[in-house]
Amino acid sequence: MNIIQSFYDNMASEYDKLFLDWQAATREQALILDRLFNEYGFDKTATILDCACGIGTQAIGLACLNYCVAASDISSAELAEAKKRAAENHVKIRFEHADFRALSDVFSEQFDIVICMDNALPHMLSRDALDLAIRSITSQIAPGGMFVASIRDYDALLMDKPPYSPPYIHKTAKGQRVSFQTWIWDNDHYKLTQYIIDDEETLHISKFDCEYRATRTEELTELLMENGCSKIEWKYPAETGFYQPIVIAMK
Asked: In 65-153, which residue ranges form alpha helices assigned H by DSSP?
């Protein structure tokens, strides 16, 4: 099992603690994505693949808006959590275990929209690995379709290479939850430790380790163009309301 699978498998049961209200976040993020889809000419007849679905944050929200959604992830534990949450939300989603570098191994069809949210692409630790992922993802997009992904603003982060992320502090009826990350940089790579401090009825501290490669907007734009995409646009939180920059590419 590689470091990415281990990171998400281990964190699956606690991932929702990164949110004050995970259920509300699914609704809010789905509405943001729905507005973007509409802006680019898509409606609820569009088929969607969430190729890094995690516990279903975007996939479930979009299914609740009556989109036809398929979802895949490399983490078996997160997929199990996503399936449970989809059932709780009374939505039908096709879930598959898949590496987004090899989506055609699992999906024979193409989709109108493929999404890859929450900084998943920077798990690719080299340009070649990222190229393989982009080639795989774009192959699953139907002609005239759309790719939507979100990543951290690495153009800004690489200027200072901060050693940690600002903490999220969520006040709850039982106390509070605090989550933050520490980052150890090595050129454009960084080793990340995610801490989740659950100080509600009892104190519980968890930590999870992973590695990322800071992906610049220029590099991702170039790879999307090399793999058959055009009309590539970057939209930032002030415009979209989403917490990370979003890249949009048409095929």
From this structure: 76-88, 127-139
Q: Are strands 175-186 and 189-199 parallel, antiparallel or unpaired?
A: antiparallel
Longest dimension (CA), the chain: 52
Token output for 246: 């979003």
Look up the domain containing 207 and give its range: 156-211
Question: What is the percentage of the chain residues whose pLDDT exceeds 90?
Answer: 98
Q: What pLDDT score was predicted for residue 230?
A: 87
pTM of the model: 0.97
H or E element in which residue 49 lies: strand 47-50
The token pair that represents 83 in the structure block = 């399936």
Domain count, the chain: 2
Tokens of 146: 């759309």
| Number of neighbours of residue 39 by Cβ within 10 angstroms | 11
Please tell me whether residues 80 and 179 are part of one structural domain: no
Q: Report the interhelical angle of 57-64 vs 22-39 (nearest 10°).
A: 70
pLDDT digits (tens, 9 = 90+) for 65-80: 999 999 999 999 999 9
Amino acid 1: pLDDT: 54
